[in-house]
UniProtKB/TrEMBL annotation:
It comes from the Bacteria. Residues 1-76 form the 2Fe-2S ferredoxin-type domain. This is (2Fe-2S)-binding protein. Keywords: 2Fe-2S, Iron, Iron-sulfur, Metal-binding, Oxidoreductase. The keyword Oxidoreductase applies. Residues 155-179 are annotated as: Disordered. PROSITE patterns: 2FE2S_FER_1 (PS00197), 2FE2S_FER_2 (PS51085). GO terms for molecular function: 2 iron, 2 sulfur cluster binding; metal ion binding; oxidoreductase activity. Gene3D superfamilies: 3.10.20.30, [2Fe-2S]-binding domain. Coiled coil: none annotated. The keyword Iron-sulfur applies.
Amino acid sequence: MTRFTVNNQPVQYKMAPDTPLLWALRDASNLTGTKYGCGTGDCGACTVDIDGEAVRSCQRTIGAVEGSYVTTIEGLSRDRSHPVQMAFLDKNVVQCGFCIPGIIMAAAVLLKKNRNPSEDDIRAGITNLCRCGIYPRLVEAILLAASVQRGDETIAAPPRPGITPADAAREVPALTPPR
């Protein structure tokens, strides 16, 4: 049995130690924010924070993280209040959104290590791939997040995720077929 901490909760996986961390997180823990992209560690969609390092979870086995602390996008902030998440919303970074959790995790780790990164530091530190081409806004957002973390700037609180139960259950008028 493999034991480590995920999002500040101790976990014990009854899976083979050579199981990729990505699949343990997604399948056993239902933490589906960590995405399967390429399976080779090239795209970064599966990036998580392991003991303060941005790691491609498809390339790390659960046996290799025994005793470690793993943070996924779900553990970063449930209400999108982490400065990187807020900056991504503020700068309208997200397009399709598939790669975003991995990029946010890589950015959060980068800002833990470097409170005042330059544009070159960001480009060198964020090696995740995005097919939508968000890179110019991505750099702006990470610079803003760094500024917020340092206390130099503020961002308005993000909207709460989801919709209200009343909105989800409202009746939609029936369509009248054309004659």
